Amino acid sequence: METYDDQVDSFTTDRSKSIATMMIDEFPTVIHYLDSWHFIRSLALDLMKRREQKQFAPMKPWFRSFINHVYWSIQSSGDGDTAKEKLLSFFLHITDIHEGFENCEWFKFRLIKSCEHSESQKQLKNHPDYLNLNDEAHLKSMNVLMAVLQKGNRIDAIKQVSPYFATSSVESFNSRAAHYASKKVYYSLDGFKNRTQIAILDWNSKQLDEMNGTRVVIGEKRFFNKSTKQYSFRKIKTEPDFSWRNDTANIGIRLYKDDKVTDDYETGDDDIEYEDEQDYDSEVRASQQFNADELWNRLELCGDIQGEDDMTEEEQYGESIGIKTEFTVFAKK
């Protein structure tokens, strides 16, 4: 960010304590956002652990609606405080309270005064049964959900979740880069750099095709999600266009013919030419005399250390940026 030509206004990452500390200390003028996918995934996994608990039973029919509500709270706001109030408005909605939020006793709503849905919407006709504030079992299920939100200061942390960008594009590129430069193989610096550049050309080509409308979604593929224990759908797109490979090769040939290729290119270890396969095999056998895997197999895990390591990633993150949140649990009147 220091060498970038234009000023960086915001930076979106997953929820990491070390990155949060670095952004506060070294880049205080850059807005640090959290990735929405990682934030909601962590929240959903915690809820999945409680889905089969007896106390959570009344809330279980609302599980998917809650996850959708979190996405909506983040993406429809563009403002941290508004996103926080929209998130907490879920507890009023599931108890059949859709207006008059300013009269809430357990939280002071300043920006959101009522639900934004319409009573005529189709999803309201098929919604789960509303919870009863006079039912002890229903109150316990609401407290279980609130406890999950309080873990790691998630309620305040949602104010920092980005409504604009996510790290999914970066992860998509990393997946493509691993296709050209496998993590299981060691490459020379020049070899790794060249493979990364090819991955960039490949990934950019696919993005441009989608933007231009030449690569479109043609269907969906059903698959079982191990995290949610439910079936989900993955988009199926038209076959990608790899004409960029021929274009790149033609450019290289033309530059070579025009004597524009520099001669000071440093040959990497994986670019050495061998006279025959026997020389290559001998080189490989010599390099395999030291097996790095044997070294890793001899390593042992350190024992558990009591203290900060016992805290969850969310709790450590909250401590690093000084977030403290406490809410009065729901109680029967």
Overview of the molecule:
- The structure is a single chain.
- This protein has helices at residues 17-26, 36-48, 63-75, 80-93, 122-125, 136-150, 154-157, 168-180, 189-212, 243-257, 277-287, 292-298, 313-320; strands at 10-13, 31-34, 217-225, 230-237.
- It is mainly alpha-helical and 333 residues long.
- Among the domains are: 10-160, no CATH class; 188-269, no CATH class.
- Strands 1-2 form a two-stranded parallel ribbon. It has a two-stranded antiparallel sheet with strand order 3-4.
- The model is unreliable at 273-277, 287-310 and 323-328 (pLDDT under 50).
Kindly summarize this structure in a few lines:
With 333 residues, the chain is mainly α. The protein has helices spanning 17-26, 36-48, 63-75, 80-93, 122-125, 136-150, 154-157, 168-180, 189-212, 243-257, 277-287, 292-298, 313-320, and strands at residues 10-13, 31-34, 217-225, 230-237.
Secondary structure topology:
Blueprint: E1 10-13, H1 17-26, E2 31-34, H2 36-48, H3 63-75, H4 80-93, H5 122-125, H6 136-150, H7 154-157, H8 168-180, H9 189-212, E3 217-225, E4 230-237, H10 243-257, H11 277-287, H12 292-298, H13 313-320
Parallel strand pairs: 1-2
Antiparallel strand pairs: 3-4
Helix pairs in contact: 1-13, 2-3, 3-4, 8-9
Structure summary, number of beta strands: 4
Shape by Cα distribution: elongated
CA-CA gap between termini: 54 Å
- Report the uncertain regions: 273-277, 287-310, 323-328
Radius of gyration: 27 Å
Structural descriptors:
333 residues; mainly alpha; two-stranded parallel ribbon; 4 strands
